[in-house]
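Q: Hi! First time doing this. I have a protein sequence and I read that you can turn it into a structure. Is that right? Here it is:
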Amino acid sequence: MNEPIPPPPVDRAPECPALRTKGPHPWRLVDEGEARTDLSFERALWDFSGRPLGPSREIVRLEGAGLGPWPRLALAGYVLLEKLSPADVGALADELRAAGGEPVGSLPELLFALGPDARRALDDPMDGVLTGPLQGALAGPGASLLDALSHLEGRPDPRDVLVYVEVFVRFRRALLALALRLATELLPFSPDLLDGRVELFGWWRERAVPGPVPTGDGGEVVVPLPAGLEESARGAAAAALGSLFASLCRDAERIGHPRRSFDGVPEAVAAELLDGLAGLLLNGLCLERTPRPDDVESRVGPADRLPTRARHVRTVRIGGAPFHDALGRFFAVPSCPLALRRTGRILEVRRTGRCPFPMVGWSEAEAAASG
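A: Yes, that's right. Below is the predicted 3D structure, encoded as C-alpha cells:
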C-alpha cells in the first residue's frame, strides 16, 4: 500500500486579509532544466498599487503516481492553459496513486486510469475567437485539445507539448501588452459615440486602416489596424504582429501536425486586437460577467488611471463573479466536472479554449495566493 503523500508545500508572498492584488495571476513552470518527477509552478503577485509582492510557488508531488514524461508535461500544460490549478493536478496524482500507481506513459493510459468521465472533461473544442485560428495553425481546423495532444504524444521530444501550450500563452500575453500600449496612443472617442446611438464595434471596424504585416513564412498579409495611430505606432504594431506570426510558424513546423494551416490566422488575430481595443477604450478594465440582463449598471465617467488618452470611459458593473477577457469584453468560461472515483474528489476543468484570456480585475491576496 502506498504511503499517504503530504500536501505540497507552498511558498507564498507576504499577505494580509485586507490586502488586494491585481490580476491575473498566471502560473509558469519552473525548474525544468533536468529530469524531474515533481512539477513546480510559480506566479507573481502585486499589491493594490501595483507594487510587486514577490513570487508564489507551489510544488505538486508526483512520486508514486506512475506518470511518464509526456503525460506529466501534458498535465503541466493544463495548468499553464488555466484549465486546472496545481492543486487539481495534485488531486489527479492522488487518484493515480489510489489506482496502484501503475505506469502511465500515454494519453490513452492516462484517460483510462482517470475513469470514464476523463475524456469528456479533459477535452476542449479550442474554438474561441482567437483560440480557434491558433489551434488550426497548430493542429488543423476543427481540431480539439485531445486531437492535438494525440499528435504531440508521438513526437520524439516530450517537451513539444509545452511548445504547443506556449503558443496560446504567448499570444494572449502579447496581445494584451500590445493593446495596452496602443490604447495610450489613441485619441478620445467623440461624445456622440458614448450615448448608445452608435454601434461602436461596427463603427470601429469600418474605420480600420489596412496595413501590411509580415506573416513569418516570407510572405505578407494585409490586416486591419486601428485608426488614429501615428505612423510610428502603426509600424510598431505591424512589427509586433509579424513577430508573433513568425513564432507561430516556427512552432507549427516544429510540432509538425499534417493538418496544420496558417490560412486566415493573421486576419483573425488582427481582428481580435481591433475589437479588444474598442472594448478596452469603452470599458476600461471593469467589465464583469452578467448572469441576468437586469444586473447591468453602466455609466460614463473619468478615465482616471486607465491606460488611454480618452478623457472618459464607460464603466460597466454587473452582479456576479468576474469572468471576462483581458481586453475588456464579456466571456463566460464554462467548465466540465471530472469525478475521481477512487478518492471521491470532483474537479472542475475549465474550458479556456473558448476564451484564450485569463480573468483580470482585483481579488483578495489570500484567495489569489491559494487559488
